[in-house]
Amino acid sequence: MHCVAGVSRSAALCMAYLVRHRGLSLLRAYEQVRQARPCVRPNRGFAVQLMQWEENCRGGGDVGVAVEDEGRFRVFRDERAAKLARTL
């Protein structure tokens, strides 16, 4: 699977597939996709949609907030943890 850069759109689609059809958490799906292609970085819009997708597919989600940080997609369970991480 690929798109023009293979960084955001195709990575998000692969992660959505892994959540839905392999039963992985979004965080685990991200780790697996990143292991295969280290440059992946879903944009914020895709990250929000992926969190909604995980909740819809799994009846809840492990991820509360997604943040881009120095080119990495980082996930946190709540906004407070995300704010703390931004200060580090």
Structure description:
The chain is mainly alpha-helical and 88 residues long. It has a single domain, classed as Alpha-Beta Complex (Protein-Tyrosine Phosphatase, Chain A). The chain has four helices and two strands, in the order H-H-H-E-E-H. The protein has a two-stranded antiparallel sheet with strand order 1-2. Strand 1 and strand 2 form a beta hairpin.
Mean pLDDT: 76
Looking at CATH, which topology would you report? Protein-Tyrosine Phosphatase, Chain A
Beta-strand percent range: 5-15%
Question: What's the CATH class label?
Answer: Alpha Beta
Mind summarizing the main beta sheet? Answer: 2 strands, antiparallel
How do you describe this structure in short?
The protein has a single domain, classed as Protein tyrosine phosphatase superfamily (Protein-Tyrosine Phosphatase, Chain A).
SSE map:
Elements: H1 9-21, H2 26-36, H3 44-58, E1 65-69, E2 72-76, H4 79-87
Antiparallel strand pairs: 1-2
Helix pairs in contact: 1-2, 1-3
Name the descriptors.
Protein-Tyrosine Phosphatase, Chain A; 11% strand; mainly alpha; 88 residues; globular; 2 strands
